[in-house]
Amino acid sequence: MKQIGATQSDYELAQAVARGTIASIGDLYERHRPKVYSVCLRMTGNTSEAEDLTQEIFIQLLGKAGSFRGESQFSTWLYRFTINHVLMYFRKLTRRNQRFPCLVDQVEASGSKMSLGPQLLDRLAIDTAVAKLPSGCRSVFVKFDVEGYNHEEIAGIIGCSVGNSKSQLHKARRKLRKLLSPGLQRFSRST
Predict the structure, then answer these.
(1) pTM summary value
(2) DSSP 71
(3) Are 39 and 86 in contact (CB under 8 A)?
(4) Looking at the structure, do residues 69 and 156 belong to the same domain, yes or no?
(5) Do 132 and 58 lie in a common domain?
(6) Domain check: are 80 and 131 in the same one?
(7) Which of 24, 70, 101, 173 has the fewest CB atoms within 10 Å distance of its CB?
(8) To the nearest 5 percent, what fractions of the chain are helix, strand and coil?
(9) Residue closest to 36 by CA, chosen among 74, 91, 92
């Protein structure tokens, strides 16, 4: 069965899932799980939440695959599907926290807050630097270096040329080096 799925396009697999061929979801999962997980991880910042959300997305895909019409790349459609699913997760979480604020207080009181270790400080510095990038550079950088999309996919998602995607990535990396260089120099001296 894997041999057949390997030669089928994403559209063919999605249509097979929509017709009830549940085995085809496995091929879609193998092809797209790393990118879906990456998006979930980037949005949540939590590996266990990202893993759970990735599983939920592919379970939801069983019922929603038929809505993919093939008008864009499947990866673009799945990216949007993933973003929407994670946003719905955040909305539900916010509503739950508003309805049961005592649970949030109990978690905070239990001392489960993370200490500000060096890794967290580095992450904050990188996130701050990325946030300072112009929106075009930032979106291409995140899609390429964080989420793992290639330039052709990014061009399809953003609606630009492949060359523009490459140029924006180059600019983003150059600006990040400048923004992070004092911290990197400090780090290299201490090691």
Answers:
(1) 0.52
(2) S
(3) yes
(4) no
(5) no
(6) no
(7) 101
(8) 80, 0, 20
(9) 74
